């Protein structure tokens, strides 16, 4: 089955460019478009895309609020890929904090766009981990987030789960973590699932954000 994508951007040329790049791939299908975040929820309910590629800045409802609304109101929501003009942008970090799974620059090369959509759909690796670390260092609370610290304390991660979370924060995939720890991939998947459940995180991106903001992992 192809990865299905909904494009949300107020610029028609951006949507047309993304559609052309993605539909050139045999395993990706663009199932719909929207010009504003306000249209996302009804389209997601009707089309059930795997990934929503969404501009972070839009005139009526921006990508941050659209992400919050989508995750709050839709059962089994799709993965959310924020598409942005600027990499080092507080809006991008706020979108990640709101629940987005990763971000992509509008000037990205076609191969990078395709890779980002596939990676977000798979959910087994962190997209652009170095950039996420940079955003966390600049806009995160760097250990000063009491709520995040409380979540980590309540989670009571085992030593192995803590090690897995640190490797997740470095951007390692499940297969890379398995190789590093000399265990099977299924064992790593089990540890990742346990970490997400204990942290109450929707995915590894949210777990890593919590790790940075609690001070459990240093973003530098």
TrEMBL record:
PROSITE patterns: HTH_LUXR_1 (PS00622), HTH_LUXR_2 (PS50043), RESPONSE_REGULATORY (PS50110)
Coiled-coil zones: none
Keywords from the named record: DNA-binding, Phosphoprotein, Transcription, Transcription regulation
Extent of the signal sequence: none
Response regulatory domain residues: 4-121
Gene3D superfamilies to which the protein is assigned, alphabetical: 3.40.50.2300
CDD domains cross-referenced by the UniProt entry: LuxR_C_like, REC_NarL-like
Protein name: Response regulator
Provenance organism: Streptomyces tibetensis
